[in-house]
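#random but structural
TW: two for the price of one
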Amino acid sequence: GTSSVINGYEATTGQINVEYLKPQTQDPIALNGMVSTSLRAELNATGGWDINEKWSTGVLAHYKNESMEHDTNGDGFMDLPKGQQANLLNRWYMKDGAYTGQYLVRGLYDERNGGQTMQYIADNNIADPYKIGIRTWRMDAFMKQGYVFDEAKGTSIGIIASGSYHNQHNIYGHRVYDGVQGNFYLNAMFQTYFDETDKHKITAGLSLNYDNYYEVMTSDKAEFLIPTVESPKKTLNMTRHEFTPGVFAEYSLKVDEKLSL
């Protein structure tokens, strides 16, 4: 549902909150494996450990493999793409008095292959089959820093910074799509209550969001694309970048347990 402006200007139109296992509370080790009747195999491993009184770390790992072709309706096309995915995440949590810090880094590789089945291609002697291939590489990280000056009045400052790199190479028949996105996000805020009750709260800060997109689609059969001088193939280039700085302030009034403005 709708969220607050403190989570970014786009959050006012709706937001989904994703919670990962927390290093300071998750089990030391947990394993989960699965093999389905369609020969899809998955393995998940998580663990969280206290390094000392201040530091905790957690690891989340996932691997999936699905290499069997499925064509239950017999139309010659795979019902589901084959592929594999590896996902590894490491998170750190630090608590030292009034100071709290969180850090996360994650890497992802995802591979998917679809289109006409090998059996259909062989049975019909198709020289130019329709195939789909998707390769995705992604890295992202975030940092959260917070310090509480007055716990009774909730006076605190917080800084959130995150960055991501997303690289995707796709083939759809004769069309090739390459997309790369780099993102950096920064949010620094100050928050306090007017007194030692939680009825009147003010939050103010600044934010910065930067996106750099590299998107190119090429095709030797798509007539709507514009041919380039360098290549006989037709190319559509959608490279761009977006830079959005901002400042914000928010006043909250808690009328009672069921109503806040």
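TW: number two ↓
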Amino acid sequence: MLNKIDDFNKFILNYKDIFIVLTQKQIQLRYKNKYLGYIWSLLNPILYSGIYYFIFSVIMKVKIENYPAFLVCGLFPWQWIGNSIGVAPNIFAANSSLIKKLNFPRNILAQVEVAQDAFHFVLTVPVIVMILFIYDIPISWKLLVGVPVLVVIQSIFLYCLALIVASVNLFFRDTENLIKFFLMFSMYMTPVMYSHDMIPEKLRHLIVLNPFAPLIISWRELFLNGVIHYEYIAYMCGYCVIFWFIAHAIYKKLSFRFAEVL
């Protein structure tokens, strides 16, 4: 019994060490020799915010208070979603040498990708807070609780999606192209650029069928109104459990052939 416990502890320690080393490597690669790397990554959602502000507020006259801040609070979390899922098809393909040479849990590569995107998102939170300050929006102490909770939930959910996409793409290479359309479609179906209150009331209850919607609404409500939506968090926890089992079932079924198809 003691030997099994020792073996399990060694496995956890080794797993943690591999995860930390690979995550540090990915973060270093992301910012190595890119002095403006962090700034460029901030400019992407900020520029999109400007474009959407011009289209929806100036041209279409959408009446949403503090619309630029409203957009930023949705686009920054969405950028994390887009980054993690957008690169997911190539997670295993890009690490083929590691998979062929070393014996380690392959799913850790999906965790690493999501973790480094989570790290980057956390670095953008002060920028969001600064924008809220500029628009004289009160900064709630609940950010100290809500941000870590939502970061953990979103990390788990995106890890599950990334593991599914990365595993399937090795056998169905068209997955990468489908993901591009999926992200574009999902963005417009998710209240990123518009408020969920604008959805017709008779359809509003269906919004929780889109797993991304509770996340974006939760982030926006937290930043703009200092509200932690426990109902939406409960929905996301449910999605995390469901997709966790789906992701690991697919991974377990396909992983033994990874080295063969790479």
